[in-house]
Each structure stands twice: as C-alpha cells, then as structure tokens.
Structure prediction request, 118 residues.
Amino acid sequence: MARKPIKKSKPAKQASSRVKNRRLEARLTISSKPAVSRRKDKIAAGLLAIFLGMLGIHEFYLGRTGYGMAFLISTLVSFFLCVVLIGFLFLFIIAVIAFVEGIVLLCMDDANFDKKFN
Prediction:
C-alpha cells in the first residue's frame, strides 16, 4: 500500500499567509520607527573637550563625526611624528584647540547650544 501525500487544505494556507503578513507588518513597524535622538548636554561636551579633546571625543558626542575623525587622525599622526620631535608641537597645538573648544562650549549660552547641537 502506497501512502498518498497529504494535501494542505486552503484554510491552512490562508492561516499561514496571515501569520506571514503579521510578521512582515511587525518587521516593518519596528524598522520604520525613527531613531531616538538624545539631547546633548553642554557640560558633558565641554568636559569631554577639555579632558579627551585631543582624541575628538567631544566632536563624536556632538554628532560631528568629520571633525572627530580629523582630531583623532591628526593626534595619531602627531604621535608618530614625535619621533622627529615636531610631533610634540602638533600635539600641543591640538591640545590647545581642544581646550579652547571646551571652554567655549562651557561658556556658550544654553539657547545657542540647543540651537546648534540639539
């Protein structure tokens, strides 16, 4: 006796397609939500600039990744140029720029900071 393959009935197909549609809708709903942007704190940005400014951490925090990469790359290049002794001068200049940016961020009016970064 040969067994006949079991045929799926139409209601089962419809039920499985409804489940697939619900899953697809759930994926679309989750992926279409906008990313939550957090408010940036002026004091945090200023302190990051003063203490970790040579690495550009404050720029990454403020969402300006181009400037952050510029700080990071210039610091790394200056670090390797310290072998030739001119790197120390470049590191000092980068540190001064980051320190001044930190002071400017801390002294900036809250309304101007929010307008520019939030």
